[in-house]
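User: Is it possible to get a 3D structure for a protein together with its bound compound? The compound here is glutathione. I've pasted both below.
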Amino acid sequence: MPFTLYNAPQSTCSQRVRFVLNAKGLPFSEIKLDLLAGDQLKPDYLALNPNGVVPTLDHDGAIVIDSSVICEYLDEVAPEPLDFTPHDPVLRAKMRTLMHFIDEMPAAAVRVPTFNLAFLPRFAAMSEEEFIAFAESKPLRREFMLSMGRKGFPKEDMDAALARLRRTYERMDAEIEKSGGPWLLGRDITLADIMVMPAIVRMADLGRDGAWQDLPRVQHWYEAIRAHPAFAPTYYHGSLLTERFPHLRKAAQS
Ligand SMILES: N[C@@H](CCC(=O)N[C@@H](CS)C(=O)NCC(=O)O)C(=O)O
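Assistant: Yes, that's possible. Here is the predicted structure of the complex:
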């Protein structure tokens, strides 16, 4: 099997890559890292991915990191039977513009509710010294972790993250309206749809899907991506936070 994916079931960035691999029917072996235990910070893994984050793709010994780069790479090396990159350069540029927007806005914002609602109990159980040592061992997310602290992000940060997510739903709505849908760029699903998917699924998993109920185009998009044949194998059991953290199930239902 030429593809090995180092990833984590619940990691939103990993879900993007699993979706592309599954949609293309590319067999891959999965190495699952326990992010809360710090597997991503071990020297052997850092030698592959110096950012200390998942996912990492090993394609016959070629190492590719960063989920959006991996997805573009897969589209280049395996364009058949299906590719997610428009052939028209103008549409391709639009797709990349959206991909940049998605990485800067929802992909970053979704970490705040994720950490505050799901991961905090794990950090609250650490001593202050253990927490600081854990945060400082992270090449990419050191400052993010330190600004969160063991008590979580303050309400202003949570509100700001939710506002950025709301602006994302509105942007999606506007793009679908402009393109005629059902996908962000029109008739065909592209990498832009796959890049934003995990943030939207995460917010639904956290019980926040009410935030786009007034935007039927976004709701329709959400139903369409959930119905895609690659969705179920990507979100195997354990990929949702509510499947992993029982305390969230009650919160999401309330
Ligand atoms: N830009 C990177 C970000 C990767 C990333 O943030 N991965 C998260 C999971 S979604 C991670 O590994 N976090 C571990 C940590 O923060 O220590 C990508 O898209 O691959």
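The radius of gyration is 18 Å. The CA atoms of residues 81 and 183 lie 19 Å apart.
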